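Run log, item B.
One chain of 163 residues. Sequence copied directly from the ordering sheet:
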Amino acid sequence: MIFKGINNQTVELNIINYQYPYNTDGGWDSNWLNIYLIVKSEVGNWHTVDPSLTTWDVHQLITWFDILSKNLRPEFTDMRFTEPNLSFVLMNTVNDDSKKFRIFFNLESRPKSVEDNIEYYVDIVADNVELKRITADLQRELDKYPERRPEAKEINLSKDALN
């Protein structure tokens, strides 16, 4: 999915797999997602792949954008996650016709030739229609890699098993 930033900046965010595709036990390790970013910004162009979000993080982000698209105030105006690689910060009020938010890139989500004195981010301005598109696009990405939950074990409650 693509976030269309101001001044022709873009952030492409795709989920390309689980970090541990064969770990399906439903715990933390089985829900980390490899996030592929292609960033075209005023401070440079780069791409990265890193397990920077979980299925739960992406679900929270989808909810956040959905709430914004309805001109409602989300619980948090900044979305920060377990890994501090990506964050999303609302820069104006929810009552504005268009919402301005900033995507910050940190740690492994920055370019390889990172300069510590530069803040890496892209500003996005989106009206409610665009926010609904973002919500739907993120949901389509997550649908390919749903939350993995622990499997319920069958319990044998027959009289023979209880003796």
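Observations after the first pass:
- The mean pLDDT is 93.
- Residues 46 and 111 are 5 Å apart (CA to CA).
Flagged for discussion on Thursday.
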